[in-house]
Amino acid sequence: MDLQTFGRGRISRKSPTLVVGKKPNGKSQLKRMQGLKDEENEYMTHLKVYINNDNDIFAPLEPTLVSWLHVVREYTYRAPKDKDGNPDYFSFHDERPQVGFFAIAAWLNGWAVLQEWGTKKKNSSGRNDLWIGRGQTQFFIEAKQDWCRIDEGGNRIDEDIKKYFKAAKDSANNLIDELLGKKIAAAFIAPLWKQTDKPDFETARELWIQKISKAADAVALIAPCWDECPIDNKSNYCIGSALLLGKV
Questions:
Q1: Which end of the chain is more exposed for a tag (fewer CB within 10 A), N or C?
Q2: 3-class SS at 234?
Q3: d(Cα 5, Cα 16) in Å, to the nearest integer?
Q4: β-pairing, 125-134 with 137-149?
Q5: What distances in angstroms separate CA 129 from CA 144, 177, 242, one per listed residue?
Q6: End-to-end C-alpha distance for the chain, whole angstroms
Q7: Model confidence over 55-72: pLDDT tens digits?
Q8: CA–CA gap between residue 129 and residue 141 (Å, rounded)
């Protein structure tokens, strides 16, 4: 794939890693990295796509996952601020908006898209969260979204990832087998940090990145640094989000 440009960043399929640097003076700077930590890593936001398994299935979706990273960041840049001047961050939102962001990314990469369309399921009639198709390829995607505490240790991270991804897989497995395409589970998981100061944040963030990057067949990850994390209405620091995809 040729170099793509979306909004404020450029990214290539061969090296889908961007680092967004926020300098102490408040000016933002984009840098390309090849999987290495920067000497100013304290001020960096990491964006990366991982294709871990089933490359024949998920390689066609890699450009869409790269685009998703840009779509969700661009939403925050474009959305009007509230009366206090605070941005509306993408990670504040639950399942339906998250599926919508991914649908936009798919459309930008040439896929036909349908959301919430009526279909039969094994146990009932219902709706499929997202269908995307192009040529002879079709994906029927069932999604779940939730938040994961990363300030309560590695076991809590493991438990939350497993629970939320299982819920998505169970939903995808409920689609009928007669569908002419691949059934895919999608989990949007947003990590939270409750503490009000920085000690141990970087350690927890790195542990989160290590665990979530290997948690599914394909993963798209955005993980802001401390200075880039927004605070939600429950005083949680919101550390970006991960999109997990897995076949069922």
A1: N
A2: coil
A3: 12
A4: antiparallel
A5: 9, 16, 18
A6: 28
A7: 999 999 999 999 999 999
A8: 6
Amino acid of residue 205: R
The 10s digit of each residue's pLDDT in 193-215 is 987 777 789 999 999 999 999 99
Q: Which is it for the CA torsion 195, 196, 199, 205, positive or negative?
A: positive
The number of distinct structural domains making up the chain is 1
Please name which of 121, 117, 136, 135 lies closest in space to residue 180, comparing C-alpha atoms.
Answer: 136
User: How remote is the C-alpha of 183 from its chain's centroid?
Assistant: 19
Both tokens of residue 152? 């309560």
- Contact call for residues 143 and 164 (beta carbons, < 8 A): no
Taken as a whole, the chain contains a residue count of 248
Kindly list the distances between the CA atom of residue 59 and the CA atoms of 25, 114, 178, in Å, as whole numbers in the listed order: 39, 21, 24
Side-chain-side CA neighbours of 90 within 13 Å: the count stands at 26
The boundaries of the domain holding residue 45 are: 4-247
CA 76 to each of CA 82, 215, 236: distance values in angstroms, whole numbers, following the listed order: 12, 26, 18
